[in-house]
Design goal:
2 copies of one chain form a homodimer. Chain A is of the alpha/beta class. Helices cover about 40% and strands about 15% of the residues of chain A. The first copy, chain A, has 2 domains: about 160 residues, Aspartate Aminotransferase, domain 1 (Alpha-Beta Complex), CATH 3.90.1150; about 220 residues, Type I PLP-dependent aspartate aminotransferase-like (Major domain) (Aspartate Aminotransferase, domain 2).
Chain lengths: ~400, ~400
């Protein structure tokens, strides 16, 4: 390790220097070649077509359709608006079953679309548990909104079976899942629709942006109308809608990033492998392993910290890492049912969500991407191992200092 | 005139060449210095802070607060999202009184926020008629949403009096009105909140963007929360919200355009004056004159075509202009109550809206901005005069050709 780590005193949370001089974060933006980006912007200014379904948005949608092997890709100004419009386009009323272990936008989008979220528990893979979903179905259920957390596909066949059985729309929040597969097929083509995020923190970004993908021509048509205020032609509005448009500079960034996406993912994959190897055997640390048969974007390096085995809690480890300038992150903490307005709407939801409740105390996501070298990932893993071995001494020192 | 206009045959809708080799349009984007813009983007990439209330969004908000002399300016990803969040932030239920003579986004935003639009008629200035507003008030009315059409301030005192009398929120759609005044004070500081559009077609743009301005600290706080999913800190969501964030590249464009805004407005002002002088005395053509005591951005050159006086209808004149590559535009045609879903929701609304109904058959907006020289505006005005003088011959030829 680049820093001499012989005693707990060498930890930055005590008296040592931070392991890294600059902060490493989760979801630090990765962008493609800026010269290519600027060239696209120069072309844009010479056309003076700056937004309103411009040529670069069209090019982006076509490229995504090819890459994800899906009939329709519809670009939006951000992932949350994409989710909202995807939900509104279903023309449904009532309840939507959704995990609580997700970013709050998933649930806010349901509310914004005038629907009621009903939280379902997840399984050990962090994905919707179809048995829990089945228990959550009521006569008011209109849809299931699965989340492909960390780019892993939900248990789609079982969810589709439930949806068919109960006449529900099956939708996916694929915010994490660009360029990931399920049973060898790219995510994006399952259920009625899937919504992606192109936010700056995602593996593939357009500063702010989103996409809805679908195989359904009618839904795609409705989404395209709704994105542009319901205009069917210059003078005719045929339905409610809003402004969901992606601007041309955002599309220019996405097109540029798409050219580098495979290399971003290679870097992530290598770092994931280094983390895996270096964390192996540390008691109380589980690294979420991805199904090797699927393509993954490896944007998330997800640990579960078991307090008993590790000797300290996830939050205690987080405190140590942060002092070392390793800005690891809790996800999704607290889970959605413990945030407003959902906590007030359904204060008892936690009783139905034991896996969620337990997991959100254990999950820790580590930095990855071009900001760190393999040696950095090794150092981070070794630091975590050191914390496990010295957990007793560290805790004693905290108690002493308190 | 640059083209020889001795006979109706010389019109492009018959056998002539178009007056302009390239199209002139309404709302063609005007952007500031692209080198300055690219410099800002280079700084952004070196910071790698691409969105999430970055330094350029903060700088933009501060600059707007100074320019509009308002306590809070909150940037949004587009004007429609700004309107929606402005409405949601009022925490109201029920009906919102709004003109039908507006862009459909005004009304869609009311629907999207779970409220019911109630259309009110306008007066001869194209602005909400306070008497009509008063007649539209019911026990379910929660707010009045005035529109500062063409950058003209509504009759604010009378609307504020009605709002106070009936306990209503007074809000404004100021999409057109950046850098315009009312009673010498910049629009943006009236009512509870005002919402601006920074869309590419506006006098001051950020590709796509919007702003809400307010003097009210509590409303501003709520809007800032709602724009970012209701997060009050890293781990705490205190209310419903969404993604209303403006990205840094959009803010970079806005900051760059702000540096050129006064010169854009000067060009517009001069063109408006040329149009005014050159259109003077043409029977059946009224040019909407702005109150000379107020500051105006002059982004809209608004004609009313009186068919009887002019000798042909607005739509017939439009057809001639378009053939000459003058892409004048009807506004707001058809008005909102004649578009879906409002036509179906309130099929009788037109009976209450005689001024709206009549006006939207007469209004024609002409191109302005840096794309045209004063001589072009003169040519356009002279062409309109020619059409008036030759109206009988033109109509006869159309009938003959039909």
């Amino acid at each position: 390790m680049s820093k001499d780590m012989r005693s707990t005193a060498s930890l930055a949370c005590f008296t040592g220097e931070p392991l890294f001089p600059e902060t490493l974060s989760v979801g630090r933006p990765q962008s493609g070649d800026t010269d290519r980006f600027f060239d696209r912007l120069r072309d844009m200014f010479s056309r003076n077509w700056l937004t309103n379904h411009g040529p670069m948005v069209q090019e982006l949608e076509a490229a995504v359709e090819v890459r994800l092997d899906v009939k329709h890709a519809i670009a939006f100004c951000n992932g949350t608006v994409a989710l909202e419009m995807m939900l509104r386009a279903q023309e449904i009323k009532g309840e939507v079953i959704v995990p609580s272990f997700t970013f709050i936008a998933t649930v806010h989008a349901i509310r914004a679309a005038g629907l009621m979220p009903v939280f379902s528990d997840i399984g050990s893979t962090h994905l919707l548990d179809p048995d829990a979903v089945e228990r959550a179905v009521t006569p008011n259920t209109a849809a299931i909104l699965g989340v492909h957390t960390w780019g892993q596909g939900c248990e789609i066949e079982r969810l589709q079976f439930l949806a068919d059985q109960h006449g529900l729309k099956l939708l996916f929040d694929a915010a994490h899942a660009f360029d990931c597969t399920y049973r060898g097929r790219p995510l994006g083509g399952f259920g009625v629709c899937e919504a992606f995020s192109l936010h700056a923190t995602k593996v593939f970004h357009s500063f702010e942006g989103g996409l809805v993908t679908t195989q359904d021509d009618a839904v795609a048509h409705r989404l395209r109308l709704m994105r542009n205020f319901g205009f069917s032609d210059y003078d005719t509005v045929v339905c409610a809608g809003g402004n969901g448009k992606l601007s041309e500079p955002a599309a220019a960034m996405a097109l540029t990033n798409l050219e580098s996406l495979s290399s971003f993912i290679s870097v992530n994959r290598e770092l994931h492998e280094v983390y895996r190897r270096s964390l192996q055997g540390i008691p109380g640390v589980g690294l979420l392993d991805y199904d090797p048969r699927e393509r993954q974007n490896h944007q998330y390096v997800v640990l579960e910290i078991d307090q008993d085995g590790f000797g300290m809690s996830r939050d205690q480890l987080l405190r140590i890492l942060q002092a070392e300038n390793i800005l690891a992150r809790r996800y999704f903490y607290p889970s959605c049912h413990r945030m407003e307005p959902y906590r007030t709407l359904d204060p008892e939801a936690g009783h139905r969500l034991p896996v969620t409740t337990s997991l959100c105390e254990r999950v820790l996501v580590l930095p990855t991407g071009g900001q760190i070298a393999p040696i950095d990932a090794e150092d981070i893993a070794h630091l975590i191992g050191f914390c496990q071995r010295e957990a007793g001494a560290i805790r004693a020192r905290w108690e002493h200092d308190a």
